[in-house]
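User: Just a sanity check before I run the rest of the batch. Below are the structure tokens for the first item. I only need the designed sequence back.
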């Protein structure tokens, strides 16, 4: 029980370290959209705002392409990192960047051609709006590559424990965006072209800050075109596209909702919905950030085939994610009236009251969404594509559209707001029903709901978990491992080496890693014996330390210095080290 508690504490530390950056990544582009809308509405006019509105579906399509590549690549990278398959991880990383570059080049050509040849006339007959739209598309084309690449690199930087770089890049990006919007729109009067150029050039600055790390020579992931395997592209798309489909569903949902609101409520209802939705997109960054963290944790645990950590990760994300999101949602509900006044100052107007109700009802959907969203992304990692497809369709379009159509004649705008709450409830019930159908019995635990295969990972009798927090505890590691090995019938040679290796390496971490700072640390040890393989895994949250590099710099003339590390490397069948999410992970096979 102590090990499980310690494991959960470690996951919680990771969760809260990753969460702020992931939320910021999700929110930062929404903030940029608010900045663009502010300058367009206040300094250009309604034609520019209409152009931005018409461009949104085109942007949704680009985002869907980006999410398809990024989602599949990040899941695969997480799995391969968990398995210590460095070559495959590098290959997927290189394929991700290569395909992103190709997709961006194609989209720039197609969107640019549509703008120059005035093909946008199929979207609107208004000449003034179309002129602004064409200018806006041209300006946005310049930013296609950094828009996609920064999203992808932010995910990879999280794996390499470089979240601070993304945080710094995000702040720089927002500041530059405001300054360039003011320069291009207010000073140079470039109209819609200026708004788009400000966004695109700001993204290039964002990319410049992030990409520096990959030119420093310190990164674990490196671009290599020589080892590309185009079969990997099929895997990336197969894993990534179900999640990205939700963008397409939401585009259809938006069209349906607009039609329903105009028919049963009128333009004031559409104004209230548009105003509340623009701000709620910022708040949706919280569950989206939780989702991004869970995808990282699930991918690595699944790659390691660490059943207990996978379950603990799900429990931690559900509990902590719900608490964090719930706190924010309570604040939104309490601040409903001030938030509505950002858009509408006349408190007696119907549009103001409809906007207030949006902020009082929709936030509940954010809290409830934490449940089904985590199972959706776990299913994506675990290859349960049927459930991913069902949830994407239900959440993206079916539920909100159906409940709105059913209730709007009687409840007007409140029907639309309530449909978001009903939507996440239905999606949560779908997760439960899926487990019930697959397992043929009602789920009674988180593990049941996850429907983890019976042969996944090591059973309790096939592993031993030990947590070390002091040198005195190191001394007992060897005997615990020897007793476990003998109970499993492992030969004496491997039994002896397992105890010796773990005592040496754990002691090395405690002796050196624990003294580098004044924080509390632990060394989490797992020994697995399955299918005649014996695997030792040592995980700690100290400063990065690669024992292989330490072994390489040992003075061969000094027989005593570093003797323990030399013995481990000479006696082991295979040793792999990596630093992932700020954790040192050493895997030894004997």
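Assistant: Here's the designed sequence for the first item:
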């Amino acid at each position: 029980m102590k090990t499980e508690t310690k494991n959960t504490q470690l996951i919680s530390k990771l969760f809260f370290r990753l969460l702020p950056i992931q939320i910021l990544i999700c929110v930062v582009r929404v903030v940029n959209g608010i900045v663009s809308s502010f300058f367009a509405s206040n300094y250009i006019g309604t034609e520019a705002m209409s152009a931005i509105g018409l461009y949104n579906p085109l942007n949704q399509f680009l985002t869907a392409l980006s999410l398809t590549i990024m989602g599949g690549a990040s899941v695969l990278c997480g799995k391969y990192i968990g398995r210590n398959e460095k070559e495959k991880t590098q290959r997927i990383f290189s394929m991700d960047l290569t395909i992103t570059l190709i997709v961006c080049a194609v989209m720039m050509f197609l969107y640019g051609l549509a703008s120059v040849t005035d093909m946008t006339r199929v979207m609107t007959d208004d000449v003034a709006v179309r002129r602004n739209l064409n200018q806006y598309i041209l300006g946005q084309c310049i930013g296609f590559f950094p828009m996609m690449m920064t999203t992808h690199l932010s995910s990879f930087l999280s794996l390499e424990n470089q979240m601070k770089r993304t945080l710094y890049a995000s702040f720089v990006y927002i500041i530059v965006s405001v300054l360039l919007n003011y320069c291009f729109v207010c000073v140079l009067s470039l109209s819609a072209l200026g708004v788009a150029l400000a966004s695109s050039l700001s993204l290039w600055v964002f990319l410049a800050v992030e990409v520096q790390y990959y030119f420093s020579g310190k990164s674990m992931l490196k671009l290599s075109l020589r080892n590309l395997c185009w079969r990997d592209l099929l895997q990336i798309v197969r894993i990534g596209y179900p999640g990205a489909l939700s963008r397409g569903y939401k585009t259809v949902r938006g069209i349906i909702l607009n039609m329903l609101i105009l028919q049963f409520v009128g333009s004031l209802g559409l104004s209230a919905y548009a105003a509340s939705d623009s701000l709620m997109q910022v708040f949706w960054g919280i569950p989206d950030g939780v989702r991004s963290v869970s995808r990282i944790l699930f991918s690595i645990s699944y790659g390691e085939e660490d059943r207990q950590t996978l379950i603990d990760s799900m429990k931690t994300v559900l509990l902590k994610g719900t608490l964090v999101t719930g706190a924010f949602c309570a604040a939104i509900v309490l601040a409903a009236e001030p938030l509505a006044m950002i858009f509408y100052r006349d408190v007696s107007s119907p549009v103001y009251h409809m906007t207030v109700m949006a902020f009082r009802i929709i936030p509940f959907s954010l809290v409830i969404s934490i449940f089904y969203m985590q199972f959706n992304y776990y299913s994506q990692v675990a290859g349960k594509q049927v459930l991913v497809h069902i949830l994407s369709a239900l959440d993206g379009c079916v539920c909100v559209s159906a409940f709105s159509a059913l209730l709007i004649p009687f409840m007007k705008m409140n029907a639309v707001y309530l449909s978001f709450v009903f939507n996440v409830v239905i999606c949560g019930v779908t997760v439960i029903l899926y487990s019930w159908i697959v397992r043929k019995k009602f789920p009674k635990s988180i593990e049941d709901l996850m429907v983890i295969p019976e042969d996944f990972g090591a059973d309790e009798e096939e592993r031993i978990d030990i947590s070390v927090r002091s040198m005195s505890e190191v001394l007992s590691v060897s005997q615990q491992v020897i007793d476990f090995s003998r109970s499993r019938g492992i030969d004496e040679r491997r039994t002896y080496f397992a105890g010796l290796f773990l005592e040496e390496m754990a002691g090395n971490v405690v002796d050196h890693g624990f003294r580098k700072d004044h924080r509390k640390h632990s060394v989490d040890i797992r020994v697995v014996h399955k299918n005649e393989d014996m695997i030792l895994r040592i995980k700690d949250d100290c400063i990065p330390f690669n024992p292989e590099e330490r072994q390489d710099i040992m003075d061969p003339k000094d027989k005593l210095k570093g003797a323990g590390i030399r013995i481990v490397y000479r006696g082991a069948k295979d040793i792999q080290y990596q630093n992932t999410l700020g954790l040192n992970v050493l895997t030894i096979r004997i």
